[in-house]
Amino acid sequence: MSWGDEPQTAEPAGQGYANVPYEKAVYVAPHTPEGWAFDPVSLDFDAAWSAIEGDAVPIAHPGRIDGGDIYDGGSTFGAEWKAMYDSAKVYVLFKYVDAFLQADDGSRAFEVCMQPFYYDRYEPDFIAAGDDITLQNNSYARYIELGGGKALFRDGFVSEYHSSVGADGLAAFGPNEIGLTKLLEDLHYWSVEPDNTIKAVFVVDIGQVLSSAIDPFGDISDPGNRVSMDPITTAEDDTIAFEVKSNATMGGSANYVEYWWSSEVNDGYASLYYNGYLILQQPTVGSVEDLNSMEVRIYLRDKTLILKDAASASMDIFSIGGQLVKSARHVNRLDVSDLDRGIYLVKLDQENKAYKFVIH
Fold first, then answer.
1. The domain at 3-281 falls in which architecture?
2. Is residue 4's pLDDT more than 80?
3. Which of 82, 113, 146, 244 has its CA 20 to 30 A from that of 73?
4. Which residue from 243, 94, 225, 69 is spatially nearest to 163, judged by alpha carbons?
């Protein structure tokens, strides 16, 4: 891709990602149900799918559709996904419907794109870029050093895991061997049902696949120079850049029929700008039910932040980028229905931590 001409969603082109806000999709993945363990041999896929509350997420934005735009909401053609996680793995569940056998035999697959650290852009590179739009845009690349990768998942196997390698505007797409090794080692799930629906589970190891270099300019293969996410106990380690794409061809290998979840153009594999957020919902700041059973002062219900106790407090709400967007003093509830869809942090007075919440 040509970094200087991005984003493709802007008119005219070349304004730079930072100057054209992009509304990212957000998915909040719950913790796995108590007692549940992934076993691809004995897995009851439908039970696991149903155990994840909420609607499935459609993969509906056209990418390359040389073979025709045949997505119809999944009635006869289309894919959707859900996700959940435990202390060791993230499990991405897929369904891919092709009721009338329109896709070429064996062509249906998924691409899964991830990056756990600097999930919006690599901030040091962005600052160093100054006013150079091309270098600014390059900081949005999916970098191997930051744990980034794009996996190709077909027939239950991962055949590649690639990301941008290099810096200073010279990044090229190449293999992320650290992540690929673990993706090849782990067992996944893939079943083609009698009605030709694919049901699949893509397994992501948090400790290795979702790890990055402590020093991006050092030896990234050195285990001593790696750090992993800790979504269970560390509040800041719960969000990754995430994107999924359904692949197929129809009437020949050059006739692509591909759709994205968040990306509205076909650059979501390389650029974090178009990706959504996958948030691993922490038990301590989870749903209302979770909050009611934990020692947390605040919860979100019907787009209102509510303090559990009757006491009042000051509330400061920040965007995920750190901008103060709303404040209130001496209140025990705050209406946030006027906020745009996205991820926010709320900080209460006299507390050193912030609580993350999502407006859908």
1. Sandwich (2.60)
2. yes
3. 113
4. 243
